[in-house]
Amino acid sequence: MAELEIDPAQLDAYNALLAEEIEASVRLEPGVLMLHAVALFEAPEKIRLLEVYADENAYQAHLATPHFQKYKMLTASMVRALRLVPVTPILMSAK
C-alpha cells in the first residue's frame, strides 16, 4: 500500500497521470493483479494506493517498466510525501 500527499495545485494533472499508469500496468503486466487508487474524502490530495502483485518478482518488474518510470518522472514534482506501507492480505474479494 502506498500513502501519498499531492500538491493540491497539481492534483488534476497527478490524477490523470496516475490513471494512465494504472491502466497501462493492469493491461500490460500479467503480474499486476490489482491496482486501486482512492482519495481521502475530506483531503483529496491524500491518495492511497492498494497494489497487489503475483509475487515479489512481479513487483520488481513493475518498477522497471517504461510506463511506471514515466509516471515517476512526470509526478516527482507533484508528490509532497510518499510512504510505502507493507501489508499482508487477510481477505480480498471482488465482484
TrEMBL record:
Keywords: Monooxygenase, Oxidoreductase. This is Antibiotic biosynthesis monooxygenase. Residues 1-91 form the ABM domain. It comes from the Bacteria. The keyword Oxidoreductase applies. InterPro entries: ABM_dom, AI-2_Isomerase_LsrG, Dimeric_a/b-barrel. One of its GO terms (molecular function) is monooxygenase activity. The lineage of its organism: Bacteria, Pseudomonadati, Pseudomonadota, Alphaproteobacteria, Hyphomicrobiales. PANTHER family: ABM DOMAIN-CONTAINING PROTEIN, QUINOL MONOOXYGENASE YGIN-RELATED.
